[in-house]
Each structure stands twice: as C-alpha cells, then as structure tokens.
Amino acid sequence: MKLLPLCVSLLAVLAVSGCDRIDPNSPLGKRKAIYQQMLDVKEDLGGMLRGRLAFDPQGFASGAVTLDDLSRQPWQYYPEAKEAGSDARDEVWQQQARFNELARELEARTAALVSATTSGPLTAAGVAPAFQQVEDACEACHKEFRNY
C-alpha cells in the first residue's frame, strides 16, 4: 500500500527534474554542444602545452584542425532574439557587429594555430604563442558577451 504513493512521488520528481533540460536540437542546445566540444579540445591542447598531458605533435595538430573547424560552427545557432536559458548577455543581440567581429577573430586565431602546426618541426614551444592567442580570443568574447 505504501509503495503506490512512493512510486507516484518518484515519478513526479523525475518528470519535474527533466523540465529544465535544454533541447539538444534547439539552437541553444546545438551551440552549447559545440562550445563544450571546443572546450574539451582546447583543454587537451592546453594540457599538452602545460605538461598535464604528454605533448603529441600529431595529436596536437589534429586537435588544432578540430578546434579550427569547431570555431566556425556556433555562430549559425544564434537566433534573431535571445532564447530562455542562454548564458549570453543581451549585448550579443544588441551589438551584433562587435560580436561578429570577435567571432571572426577567433576563427582567424584558430586558423593561425593550424598554420603554426604545419610549419617546421612541431614543438610545444613553437605552437604555444599561437595557442595563447586562441585562448585570448575566447576570453575577449566571454568578457564582453557571456554571463558568468
């Protein structure tokens, strides 16, 4: 007899807890997934440069190409108006020219990182400056347009 109320309560809790999830097929869900992939790749590359992971020249070069590809993807998933649940500040939509400028800057920096992996022998010291410029581009946009 006590099992039925417990099951009903558990079912209600599970139903309510699923309501705050982001639809992975929504523009917000798609760009968050891309940003998470970018973060994962960037953490691996940074780990190689900071000694947390062994430096693997082929792995670094491959990661740079992946990061460059990902850097061009999230912008298409910014709708005309801000959607609920977005971490972006209202300024993304109010200052689109500046937002787009910073997006192009990131794309240029990731392309430069790929270029740095193709010239000469690939060393951590040789690609570190280009990687730092990618991190700086990410930070510049986050400072202006992301709510923390």
TrEMBL record:
GO terms for cellular component: periplasmic space. GO terms for biological process: electron transport chain. Binds 1 heme group per subunit. Heme c binds at residues 138, 141-142. Keywords: Electron transport, Heme, Iron, Metal-binding, Transport. It comes from the Bacteria. It holds the Pfam family Cytochrom_C_2. GO terms for molecular function: electron transfer activity; heme binding; iron ion binding. Gene3D superfamilies: Cytochrome c/b562. This is Cytochrome c. It comes from Stutzerimonas marianensis.
